[in-house]
Amino acid sequence: MIPEHAADLPAESAEELLPLLAEPSGGVPPVLTSTKELGEATAALAIGHGPVAIDAERASGYRYGQRAFLVQLRRQGAGSFLIDPQALPDLSQLNQALADIEWVLHAATQDLPCLAELGMTPTRLFDTELAARLLNWPKVGLGAVVERVLGLRLAKEHSAVDWSTRPLPEPWLRYAALDVEVLVKIRDRMTIELQASGKAEWAAEEFDHARRFIPAQRAEPWRRLSGIHSVRRPRNLAVARSLWESREQLARDRDVSPGRLLPDSAIVGAAKSVPSSPGELLGSKSFNGRAAKSEITRWYSAVEAGLAVDESELPAVTVRTNNPPPPRLWAEKDPQAAARLGAAKLVIADLVEEYDLPPENLLTPDFLRRLCWRPPEEISEQSVATSLSALGARNWQLSLVAGPLTEALRNPGLSD
C-alpha cells in the first residue's frame, strides 16, 4: 500500500517513498536462443493459466526499422520467459499455443507490429494503457500505472537503451522481466474499476480495435522530414527527397537508424542551400552527422540527382489532400463550418465531463473536424453515426456522441 502521508507530499517525493520493485519474483530468467528452449517455453506457457503478459523491446533510434530485439512473456503457473528474436525469428508455435489466451500489453499498438513480424498476433487483448485512458487517469505510463494500482515503483532507467546489444547486460534483463511481472495484476485491478465505472464494454471494444492495428503507410514518407515545411520550391524539394532516399538505403544496408547517419536538419539545410560541390556541402554549418564526411560522395551525388529531376517529376510544394484546413482558417473559409465546430466542441466538452473521459478517447479530434467541415447532406442521428463509423469511430463512441452532435450540427448558433 502507498504510505498514508505520501499523498500530502510533492509527486516526486511521494514516488520516492514507494517501495521499489527491483527483482523478478523468480529471478532473472535466461535469454532463450535455441529451438529446443523455445519448445520448452511454449509447452510451459500452454499449460499455464489465466492471461499472458507480453512485452517487446525494440532498438528505436539505434537500428533500422522497429523490429523486436527481445520478447518477454509471463503466465501464472508457467513463469517468465525472455526470448531473443534475432536467434528465434519465427515465434508462430508460441502464437499457436496462446491462440485463445488473452494477451495483456501496455500501449499495445507500439508492440503489436513487431510481434506480428515474428508470427505473433493476439485473438484477445487487454491494453493497460488504454484502460488507464478510459478511466481518465492523469498519468498512463506503465510506471505511473504500477504506482497507482500496486503502490510500487518500477525502475525506468533502461527504457531507451540499445536492445540490439549482445549479450544483453543483466540489469537490462532484470528491467525487461519486471515489465511483465505485474501486468496481469494490474489488468485484474483495472477490470474491477472498468466494471464499476460502467466502462467495461467500452474497453472491450477499444481493445479489439487496438488488436487490429496496422501502421499507416505513407505515400511520400520523405515529407516527414523535420523542417521540410521550410523548403518552398519544387527543385529544392527534389533535392531533399533524393537525399532522404539515399540515406534510407544506406541505413537499411547498415541496419542503422537513419538519423544516426545524417540528421533531418542536414538534409533540409542542404536542400535549401543547394551546394555546388562536395566541399561546399561538407562545409555547410548544418551538414553534420556520423556519416556526413565519410559518405560525402554519396550525399553530393544525391544532391545532383535531385537537381537533375525532370520538371514533370518534381514534387509539389503543396500536397492536395481531403483533409480539412487548420481550424484557425475556418472562420474565413467557411463560417458555417466554423460555427458547427464550435458547437460540436461544446457538446464534446459536456460529454467528457459527464462520462469522465479524455476528449480524444471519447472521439478522435480528426473525426470531429471532418464531420463538421463536411457534414452529411441530410443531418440525422443515423447519418452522423454512419459518417463517424466510416472514419473509424467505435460503436460505444457513436452511442454517446451521435445524438448530441446531430443537434449541434443542426443548430450551430449561426444563421444562414
Short structural description:
It comes from Saxibacter everestensis. This protein has 416 residues and is α/β, with parallel strands linked by helices.
Structure characteristics:
alpha/beta; 416 residues; disordered N terminus; 9% strand; RNaseH-like_sf; six-stranded mixed β-sheet; two-stranded parallel sheet; DNA polymerase, domain 1; HRDC-like_sf; RNase_D-like; Nucleotidyltransferase, domain 5; HRDC domain-containing protein
Topology:
Layout: H1 11-17, E1 20-21, E2 31-32, H2 35-46, E3 49-58, E4 68-76, E5 79-83, H3 92-97, E6 102-105, H4 108-117, E7 124-127, H5 128-134, H6 142-150, E8 153-154, H7 170-181, H8 183-196, H9 200-211, H10 234-254, H11 258-261, H12 264-273, H13 278-283, H14 296-307, H15 330-333, H16 335-355, H17 359-362, H18 365-373, H19 381-391, H20 395-410
Parallel strand pairs: 1-8, 2-5, 3-6, 6-7
Antiparallel strand pairs: 3-4, 4-5
Question: Can you offer a commentary on this structure?
Answer:
The protein is of the alpha/beta class and 416 residues long. The protein folds into three domains: 4-211, Nucleotidyltransferase, domain 5 (2-Layer Sandwich), CATH 3.30.420.10; 221-313, DNA polymerase, domain 1; 327-410, HRDC domain (DNA polymerase, domain 1). Helix content is 50%, strand content 9%. It has 20 helices and eight strands. It has helices at residues 11-17, 35-46, 92-97, 108-117, 128-134, 142-150, 170-181, 183-196, 200-211, 234-254, 258-261, 264-273, 278-283, 296-307, 330-333, 335-355, 359-362, 365-373, 381-391, 395-410, and strands spanning 20-21, 31-32, 49-58, 68-76, 79-83, 102-105, 124-127, 153-154. The strands form two sheets. It has a six-stranded mixed sheet, sandwiched between helices. Strands 1-8 form a two-stranded parallel sheet. The chain is flat and about 65 Å long. It starts with 10 loop residues before the first helix and ends in a 6-residue tail after the last helix. Residues 1-9 have low confidence and may be disordered.
